[in-house]
């Protein structure tokens, strides 16, 4: 059989694809640039085609390199999954998951689910991270988190990810200091008659709310202040004469019953688990996700 590339060479190639630069890739691989370059040249010799185009202006993957990349990733991920499964089966390591939650969803209810899950699965180690959409997708791609919890659909390329629906979130208007009749249903115009607390411009919810109001002909949204998470927005509205658009699910989880008003034009968002294809921790991830989906389906 012809000589095959080593796992180190494949891993270095994957590292280069992420960095797009030999110097940075060599640093990430913790080897010298000359050693890294030699690995890439050997890999190209064994594969038989040019994988990286080099010039005085820099370097980039060739068309063949782009085609070879997912195959190299699949080989590494398959090996990682096999090792992980064997180690778990022989109790050589503890099942460990890193889960990201979209900041605007809020993590209170997920925290409760994790607590119940660990009561019946005490051998699991779970870390929950509060993050925004761009950060979440980057960390999924770089394997810093295993599962993301976000709203779908969005305007991002999700072709590299799988998703599992958890629940639907209904967005409501929260303004505890605004004196409105109980059961009042608010139009878009009525919402903007009162000081509004919004999310920072780069946030998923900021884009979604902008789209929501633009459908009603409002291209610019007056706002009182922009705050980084729904908990801060809720607290601000409780202390000041202001309103905010918040997930009803989150308000329920916090035990908040007053100052909540429905929207004349409903805004419903689908909460999903998102994860990479062929993740080496698939069995551990599936156990966790199945539990949460079942728990939500039972009592939310």
From TrEMBL:
Occurrences of domain HTH lysR-type (ranges): 5-62
Superkingdom of this protein's organism: Bacteria
Keyword field: DNA-binding, Transcription, Transcription regulation
MF terms in GO: DNA-binding transcription factor activity; transcription cis-regulatory region binding
Record flagged with keyword Transmembrane helix: no
UniProt-listed InterPro entries: LysR_HTH_N (IPR000847), LysR_subst-bd (IPR005119), WH-like_DNA-bd_sf (IPR036388), WH_DNA-bd_sf (IPR036390)
Cited Gene3D superfamilies: 3.40.190.290, Winged helix-like DNA-binding domain superfamily/Winged helix DNA-binding domain
PROSITE patterns: HTH_LYSR
Protein name listed in UniProt: HTH lysR-type domain-containing protein
């Amino acid at each position: 059989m012809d000589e095959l590339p080593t796992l180190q060479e494949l891993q270095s190639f994957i590292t280069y694809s992420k960095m797009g630069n030999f110097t940075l890739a060599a640093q990430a691989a913790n080897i010298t640039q000359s050693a890294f370059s030699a690995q890439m040249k050997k890999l190209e010799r064994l594969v038989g085609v040019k994988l990286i185009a080099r010039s005085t202006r820099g370097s980039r993957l060739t068309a063949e390199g782009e085609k070879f990349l997912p195959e190299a990733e699949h080989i590494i991920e398959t090996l990682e999954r096999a090792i992980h499964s064997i180690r778990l089966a022989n109790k050589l390591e503890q099942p460990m998951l890193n889960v990201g939650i979209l900041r605007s969803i809020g993590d209170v209810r997920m925290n409760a689910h994790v607590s119940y899950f660990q009561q019946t699965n005490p051998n699991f180690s779970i870390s929950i991270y509060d993050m925004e959409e761009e950060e979440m997708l980057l960390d999924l791609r770089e394997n810093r988190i295993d599962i993301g919890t976000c709203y779908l659909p969005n305007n991002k390329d999700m072709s590299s990810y799988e998703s599992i629906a958890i629940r639907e979130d209904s967005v409501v208007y929260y303004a505890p200091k605004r004196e409105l009749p109980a059961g009042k249903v608010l139009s878009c115009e009525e919402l903007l008659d009162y000081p509004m607390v919004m999310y920072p411009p780069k946030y998923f919810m900021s884009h979604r709310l902008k789209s929501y109001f633009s459908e009603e002909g409002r291209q610019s949204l007056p706002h009182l202040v922009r705050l980084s998470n729904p908990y801060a927005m809720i607290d601000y509205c409780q202390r000041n004469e202001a309103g905010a658009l918040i997930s009803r699910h989150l308000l329920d989880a916090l035990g908040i019953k007053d100052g909540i008003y429905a929207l004349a034009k409903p805004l419903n968002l689908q909460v999903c688990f998102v994860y990479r294809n062929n993740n080496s921790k698939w069995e551990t991830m599936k156990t966790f996700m199945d539990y949460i989906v079942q728990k939500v389906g039972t009592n939310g």
